[in-house]
Amino acid sequence: MTITQVRATCPHDCPDTCALLVTVKDGVATEVKGDPDHPTTAGVLCTKVARYAERTYHPDRVLYPQRRTGKKGEGKFERISWDEALTEIASRLSGIAARAPEAILPYSYCGTMGLVQGESMSSRFFNQLGASQLDRTICAKAGFVGYTYTIGATIGTDVEHFQDSKVILIWGGNPIASSLHFWMRVQEAKRRGAKLIAIDPYRSLTAEKCHQHIALLPGTDSALALGMMHVLIAEDLLDHDYIASYTIGFDQLKARAAEWTPEKTAATCGITAAEVINLARDYGLAAKHGEPVAIRVNYGVQRVRGGGMAVRNIACLPALIGAWRHPAGGILLSTSGSFPANRHALQRPDLLAGRRPRTINMTTIGDDLLKETSPEFGPKVEAVIVYNANPLAIAPDSAKVQQGFEREDLFTVVLEHFHTDSADYADIVLPATTQLEHVDAHLTYGHLYMMANNAAIAPMGEAKPNTEIFRLIAARMGLTDPCFQESDDQLAAQAFNKDHPRAAHFDWETLKRDGWQKLNMPDAPFAHGGFPTPSGKCEFYSENMLKDGLDPLPGYIANYESAASSPALAAKYPLAMISPPARNFLNSTFVNVQSLRATEGEPHLDIHPYDAAARGIVHGSMARIFNDRGSFICKARVTDKARQGLVVGLSVWWKKLAQDGKNANEVTSQRLTDMGRAPTFYDTLVQVEQA
Predict the structure, then answer these.
(1) Can you list the positions of beta strands (E) in 446-569?
(2) How far is it, in rounded angstroms, from Cα 637 to Cα 608?
(3) How far apart are CA 542 and CA 531, in angstroms?
(4) Within 10 Å of residue 666's Cβ, how many Cβ atoms?
(5) Which of 458, 432, 396 is nearest to 122 (CA)?
(6) Which 3 state secondary structure label does DSSP give 404?
(7) Phi and psi (nearest 5°) for 428?
(8) Interatomic CA distance for residues 610 and 619, integer angstroms
(9) Tens digits of per-residue pLDDT, 267-300?
(10) Are 456 and 106 in contact (CB under 8 A)?
């Protein structure tokens, strides 16, 4: 018996990007565990990835190319050869590319976060064709844009210092479910005496374990940040030296914040004035006493109309009190901007050769698949290649998404591990490898380590890496640029700019051997300013925002679907709905792993006892959630975890596994955020009734 241990990396859309050790016996992966030597993984995995081998060897894996034999959506397929699949795909795409290459659309996101299996060979392929570009905004773009206007890049507090913080605001996130290793450090900070405050409309697992939970209304985070600024300024809980040296626009910000009294803030947010005042005091007084205070702001904050502004406002807070002076102070949204990723080399935008194809937003795929050819839109979408994504489950306004994919004249190819909701609508399904079966290089958005993934086992069945699939399609279509011949190791060797000072002389072979390598970053990145903004300072006032037609100062933008913006709509649909991640799933990944689905139970809706009683809904009964876009049915859980006026549908369930074949995205909207062209999943009004 031959036993080996292989260094790997978790590929999923999670900030922790864990270092894995895969035990392989005679070519079979028998155990996946966390690397005990990796400083952030520390030998611990979440329940999902601890069962990764179960997913790789799942009996329902797609292991061979398949062609649809039934109606779209029925899930009826026949096995075909790779030669047959490539011939049909190349024939269909070549015909379209010859007359209207923009009628071909890629649809992908973060089914893998890898730089190689994500967007490398695939981007080269679509750039060479001149296909439509995809605006990949469905998760975090609004917050990234708001943060970048303020800080200059998505650079923040190193997670390895959070245990030294004395006050930690966990704003719009549930790290017990979505960032376990951050939560481990927060727990250590708590043991050392830190105060933990959760700011979230929903009393999540994380909020239950914090000292305080502030349950504001969805979409009012920017107002709460303005109210905090008002108190910090009024009570002089400021670091005047830091403000004078390393910020710009304080006088304008002071005037704006003066409008946001605790009373006005409380009325907007649906909380008390005392909560606003005490939050600001907890935050500001600790810093005034020289203690490190930190904010972990997560993506839930920015999935509303004013989501970009919300993150911008929150990102202003650390500079007001000088929190950036400490390694354990500041704010963390994402660390991704710290990495000198060499995307130009990987994706080769030069292959466009001066062409400027249109861009289609992945959030509005429901509308865009239903559009006809026009001067404004361009050619009708005739072909979609789906990889690393499951649009039928995760895109908003799901009825329209389904209607678009049901088009008989739409040629759809899906690269997948399983027959997801989206795969059921494919004309051709191609078997893709899992992380245990291919090579990849990773950056992260929750820590500061470059990561390597080695293939632990040979591909199952006839599965192939995404890169190889696009190489084969390119070759069959006669694309001869030498870039399509580069191997996965050659691609990975270009993943990071080795000459960048942060990359610390990146070498792929060394990274493959060691598994991970930390970036060369200062412990406190903005202790002495040096913000990567145009001014080099934290920008309370942003000239770039003014140039882009936005308010250059922090402000408040009410939800599209709220009493403030749409009183008639709010009267018809009086309940706000959010759909945060279920603990045992990762977006729509892992939903089909039986052990995890059994733990999660079935789709359910959390509703406050007052709201339930008013509708005759009892705990455990079936409820119908609806608005003008659609409806779905799930089991009601009557609980005060959801504040009054709010319902919570933990997500994202595959539609085919729900009782009515639907999920929460039946009622979400395709409207976009104030900046970043991102989705507004949590800007949704509904009514609920007995099913």
Answers:
(1) 449-453, 516-518, 538-539
(2) 9
(3) 13
(4) 25
(5) 432
(6) helix
(7) -130, 130
(8) 12
(9) 999 999 999 999 999 999 999 999 999 999 999 9
(10) no
Q: How many residues does the chain have?
A: 691
Could you tell me if residue 453 is left (phi over 0), alpha (psi between -120 and 50 degrees) or otherwise beta? beta
d(CA 543, CA 152): 12
Give exposure, 633-648, as e/b (b: 16+ Cβ within 10 Å): bbbbbbeebbbebbbb
Helix (H) or strand (E) holding 285: helix 273-288
pTM of the predicted protein model: 0.97
Sequential DSSP letters for 129-176: HTPPEEE--TTTHHHHHHHHHHHSSS----GGGGGG-SEEEEES--HH
Indicate the helix (H) or strand (E) that contains 264.
helix 262-269
Q: Which amino acid is at 402?
A: Q
The answer to whether the CB of 681 falls within 8 A of the CB of 579 is yes
SS3 233: helix
Rounded to 5, what percent of the chain is helix, strand, coil? 35, 20, 45
How, if at all, do strands 359-361 and 133-135 pair?
parallel
Q: Give me the sign of the Cα torsion angle 586, 587, 588, 591.
A: positive
> Dihedral, CA atoms, 537, 540, 541, 543, nearest 10 degrees?
50
330 forms bridges with which residues in the sheet? 294
Q: Which tens digit of pLDDT belongs to each residue from 154-175?
A: 999 999 999 999 999 999 999 9
Strand ordering across the sheet containing 66-68: 77-79, 66-68, 428-431, 411-416, 383-387, 104-108
The CB density around residue 566, as the number of other CB atoms within 10 Å, is 16
